[in-house]
Amino acid sequence: MSKPLRVGMIGYGFMGKAHSNAYRKLAQFFPELNYKPELRVLCGRDEAKARAFADTWGYGDVETDWRVLVDRDDIDVIDIGTPNKTHRDIAIAAAQAGKWVLCEKPLAMDVDEAEEMVAAVEAAGVPNMVWFNYRRVPAIALARKMVDEGRIGKAFHYRATYLQDWTIAEDVPQGGAALWRLDANAAGSGVTGDLLAHSIDTAMWMNGPITSVVADTETFVKERMHQESGQVEPVGIDDACMFLARFANGAMGTFESTRYARGRKNYNTFELNGADGSVYFDLEDPQYLDFFEYTRAATGDKTEDHLTGWRKIHVTNFEHPYMDRWWVPGCTIGYEHTFIHALADFLAGVESGEQAQPNFRDALQTQKVCDAVLRSAKTRGWVDTGVEGVQGAALIGG
């Protein structure tokens, strides 16, 4: 028998749309799940904008104070889609009120906040998840499966890039509802927390813990007008970041992110090289996974040497992660589907008692790497991350 999952969504921006779409579409494509989301309350500071969003997406009610929402007894889950500086207080209050908590990435402003949030959800015993949605791209989930199957072998190298170009202009302001990611007081960091957090999460899910880093960052535009104060103020976030990494399994890693790569809109790639093979992925061409297999040559079978080379796998067949939920083979899916997959895995974990990853404790490990990267950029030396454990696999898709 189905159970209603009464959703309280905080935030009506980009992530509010992505999450709301997932709640609305889940039951149609994962009908076996017992929990059926109900869009109960939308919370936002601007009542007119909140009501317009609620009307568009079908929320039954609106609140302008998240504290009131958290205290409501007709809400089961609090979904945090707000700027990073608000995550801690909302998550802790929600957990103490016995609500399930889903939170956008990065988990917090820093490790200290993240540890408080982990302690709160674990003390309350409430289900929790962080929306690192790229784990749920079918091609990325397939790459993880191939690693688990031993097709890559001993890992040697991991390299990741995450490039955008939307802040190049010097007259782009900082702060406010649309540009809070450029305000260190609201975001905590720049590309490290916003973009590289995704790359780091994927890397550790694919290749295990990152144990140490050495980094460099740059802020190309030193001052910008702040939309809330109306004054030109120093820019405190990192516009670009590059770091080297060491993994617990002995592999070396390189990571690069910037918002100053002219022509790159959301260029998110990774490549993992091992003794037996390599995989490569590009989010701007997400239906494909590139795979190089060396194991046949290693067996001494020379009959297929003339076929050695990279293969491009079109990840749309029913046997590929998540794809049996969608269309016929050859028909692609998109960015929005990754949030549906994440929500499905979360609820499947609640029903089975095996919590889906990444939960708050997993996201704390990513936060540790982000903080270590920023410390290294200041000290200009290697920094240990203190990361614990290995990231878990997806439940439905992996």
Can you walk through the features of this model?
With 398 residues, this protein is of the alpha/beta class. The protein has two domains: 131 residues, 3-Layer(aba) Sandwich (Rossmann fold), CATH 3.40.50.720; 229 residues, Dihydrodipicolinate Reductase, domain 2 (2-Layer Sandwich). 33% of the residues lie in helices and 24% in strands. The protein is built from eleven helices and 17 strands. The strands form three sheets. A nine-stranded mixed beta sheet has the order 16-15-14-13-7-12-11-8-17. Helix 5 packs antiparallel against helix 11, helix 6 packs parallel to helix 8 and helix 8 packs across helix 11. The radius of gyration is 21 Å and the shape is globular. The mean pLDDT is 95.
